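Two entries, shown back to back:
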Amino acid sequence: MRKSTRTEVPLVVLDDDAAVLEHARSLFRHGVPLAVISSHYSEVVPFMLGNNGRTVALVADVDDPDQLAGAITVVEGRLGRVGSVVRYGTDLPADRRVHAPAA
């Protein structure tokens, strides 16, 4: 896969926060290169099925430092430097914070 011309990509952890999931969906819809990772296969499947060539979707134990480091290595090999890890709503850039729709 060709590396993106962007110098940094976000690594978005999908396990903990609905606002973070919505942020990842928004980036994906707009074709922004990103990586998503989750401990749950079902969380990353939509990003795998709709893969636009600018997304890396991985399943790993996000609380295991070795697995997270491995995921970062994979992402950097495919898309470019991981510039941020977004796991909680408070990790979102202030201008990108979104509220998840009510369930």
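entry 2 starts here
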Amino acid sequence: MGGDVGRHHSSATQRWAARLAIAAAVAALVLPLVVAGLKSLGLAAVTLAGFGVSAAGLWWALSRRGPVRVLAAALAVAVQAAVIALFVAVGLFWLVIVLLLLWAVVCFEGWAALAEDRRPAAPVEHRTPPPERPYLIMNPRSGGGKVGRFGLKEKAEALGAQVALLDPAHPQDVAELARNALANGADLLGVAGGDGTQALVVSVAAEHDIPFMVISAGTRNHFALDLGLDREDPSTCLDALTDGVELRIDLGRIGERTFVNNVSFGAYAEVVQSPAYRDDKLHTILRMLPDVLTHHLGSRLMVHGAGVSIDSPQAVLVSNNPYSTDDPAGLGHRERLDTGVLGVLGIKVDNAVQAAELLRGRRSSGLTVATAHEIVVDADEPEVEVGVDGEALSFPTPVRCVINPQALRVRVPRRRPGVPRSRARLDWRRLRDLALAHG
């Protein structure tokens, strides 16, 4: 019902943004014909062909070594340079700039017009009393030392929390620390650290139905982002101790392990398992990618689920709730963590033609984007490498991933930045309806 209401009521701002988007799109289509006539069609074909050749060149550069890699990379760059030189030679480079500006207007105004249609329903917040005996685990090395830089330990203790500061020189079992804290009467668990550490303690909190608190002291803080927390100042997350609300969110599970963000199979998982990856990421990736992409290294994967079947993909990402759709691969962020489904992203590219086809985005045959309640990943080996919330692990095959709906109570500050809103996909029928609507 909420979506129907949004489609029948529009603001003047929406209507004028839709009109500007359509006007700019028409201008972008008509202008080349007016300026260059039928010659513009040939130039458009050359431009598209150039993008295709460059995409193929990049595939060869990533999947080959030695002189072939160098030549392929040079080809990808040279083709684009040649296309630009062609437009300069015929005196129409200015037209390229104008068209880019027009399409920028189309996207900006189109997204603005459709923004209200994309407003997600706010997660249900539960007002609960503040915890009486919160227990927080903090990693002083996480995020380049954010625990010390923002004085998180001292601020948390001033709010009545018991803080366990991890010792990097003596690794500890954070899940065991959490269990011991619960046995001693803790009524909230929290972590200031990376998402991998968060997931280990989350599993304990969910098992005992105890609220969990995220402190955004990691490096990328993907989990904190998708909870709408402040990633710039992790100390603001401590407000949840005194003025917080609870959310109920889903958790992913791979085998017997919980994940809060995603698990990856294939290329990424194989590369991060290399001992050399941590010391020299770029060179390790370039050295290993040719064998991974051509199936000479690693397992040959098979992915199955309700409505999902991918044979021999190079990479598979299974996420706790689907990622947003405001970029070609949909890996920006997750608008909701309570939809009750896994997100599935698979990439299968076996040759340069399929690599070029990836320019079509989600319409490409090499890209699978889906949702499911359960995904099974099998392989031609008894064990497969997996990246679980950024941690390099191995699992016996077949590997089963499931979603556990509403499995975790998360306590967050009542006042927080909120989850970034995704850009709407340009729906031309909806834009037309908005443009023709009257206030």
